[in-house]
Each structure stands twice: as C-alpha cells, then as structure tokens.
Amino acid sequence: MPLGEPPVSFPDEGWVAKLWHEQEAFDEIVHRHSIRVSIVCAVLAREMGWSEPEIVKMQIAGQFHDIGKLDIPREILNAPRRLTPEERELIEGHSIFGGRRIRSLGQTPVLGFVEEVVLHHHERFDGTGYPDKQQGKGISEQARIAMVGDVYSALWEKRSYKDAMSHDEVATRMSNGDERMTPAMFDPDILAALRDALPAIKGTLTA
Ligand SMILES: [Fe+2]
Ligand SMILES: [Fe+2]
C-alpha cells in the first residue's frame, strides 16, 4: 500500500476514509506511524496464515490503533521534554479514548475488531501492559499482532528523541531484548512470524 492513501476499505465501512483524513489533519507523525503499523500488521497477519479479508481488517486496525491520540493536546503528544507522570498517564489514556471513538462510529464486525485493537494494543504478553493488564493468549490475537507491529514501527522510525534503526537491529532487539524491553512482552509465535516475515517487511516498509 503506498503511503498517503487510505487503506483498501470494505464497501460498507465509509468511516475508514473519513477517520483517515481526520487523523492525517491532526498530526503527521501519528498518521505516518499508523500507516507503517498497518503495513507491518498486514504482513504479520499474512505470515500467520490469515485469510485475505481478515488481513484487510488487520490493516485497517493498524491504521487506527492510536486514534485516541486525537483526544490528547498535541503540545503534550509531541513535547520535546520529559513528561510529567500526569502527562504520561494522559497519553496512556489514548487506548480508552480511542476505544470510545471507534464505538461512537457504530457497530459493525469491522468496527468491533478495530475497537479491540485500539483498546488493547499496549497490553503485553507478560501482563505488564495497559489498560487491563491482560496476559498471554488472553489478549486477542489482533491486539497481540498490533502490539508487535507497533513496537517494530516505533523502533524503526526516526523520532525527535531517537534515531532511526535498521530493520535487522529492530528485529534483534525485539528477539533478544535490550535496556528498555524484554522479549517476554511479545507473543513468541508472533515474534517468530516477524522473523520469518522480515524480508517482506524490508521490502514493504521503506519510508
Ligand atoms: Fe498506542
Ligand atoms: Fe502506536
């Protein structure tokens, strides 16, 4: 999927393009990060053997996983300084805020699937995530995929506070851990899929 175009939509999911443009108008960093997450999520779902319509759902969910950030002031979101504990708590609220936003759009199977990803993409396999401290396979598969896709993309990207990393370095850090993360955060099956899909990710995630 080329950057800068809404993902392939289901015919009855008119909200996708609208929300895409709303997110794009809100913040370019969030928007471009989300495009990358949607790409990695789709590659991972394919590697996990998902069917084509399910892969498209995963792609849409990746695109909007951080939609709750639209409820957070951009000065806090992009603050070039250490955040206060209160500010960090507010940012962590984006899972809940985003879940509410998606729910307000109506009830379709795709919206239900996306809402689950939005709510739980910061849960960790070892139970140390948020907002519900879910654990292991008790976390939905789509949220476990989104979590891996989100961390992968965030590490690969250049940010104001960090340099970009190569694909190989990101994969190595996620597999072996580093000063900030442990592989226990990730579903080992999805981590294995990530390693197998690395050539596909390298070919797709280029900018
Ligand atoms: Fe997030
Ligand atoms: Fe994210």
Can you walk me through this structure?
The protein has helices spanning 15-26, 28-47, 52-63, 74-77, 85-92, 94-104, 109-120, 141-156, 167-176, 188-196, 198-204. With 207 residues, it is mainly α. The protein is globular, with a radius of gyration of 16 Å. Helix 1 (15-26) crosses helix 2 (28-47), helix 2 packs antiparallel against helix 3 (52-63) and helix 7 packs across helix 8. The longest helix is centred in the N-terminal third of the chain and has 20 residues, at 28-47. The chain has one domain: Hypothetical protein af1432. It contains eleven helices and no strands. Helix content is 58%, strand content 0%. The chain binds fe (ii) ion (FE2) (2 copies). One fe (ii) ion (FE2) is lined by residues 65-66, 94, 121-122.
What descriptive keywords fit this protein?
11 helices, Hypothetical protein af1432, single chain, mainly alpha, 207 residues, binds fe (ii) ion
Structure at a glance:
The protein has 207 residues and is mainly α. It has one domain (15-204): Orthogonal Bundle (Hypothetical protein af1432). It has helices spanning 15-26, 28-47, 52-63, 74-77, 85-92, 94-104, 109-120, 141-156, 167-176, 188-196, 198-204.
Q: Which descriptor suits the 3D outline?
A: globular
CATH topology: Hypothetical protein af1432
Task: Report low-confidence residues grouped into runs of 5 or more.
Answer: none
Mean model confidence by pLDDT = 93
Helix percentage range = 55-70%
Termini separation comes to: 12 Å
CATH superfamily: Hypothetical protein af1432
Got a strand count? 0
- Distinct ligands: fe (ii) ion
The largest sheet is: none
List the helices and strands in order.
Answer: HHHHHHHHHHH
Q: Which percent band covers the strand fraction?
A: under 5%
Q: Compute the number of structural domains.
A: 1
Derived from helix and strand composition plus strand pairing, the structural class reads mainly alpha
Rg measurement, Å: 16 Å
Helix segment tally: 11
Label the CATH architecture: Orthogonal Bundle
* CATH class term: Mainly Alpha
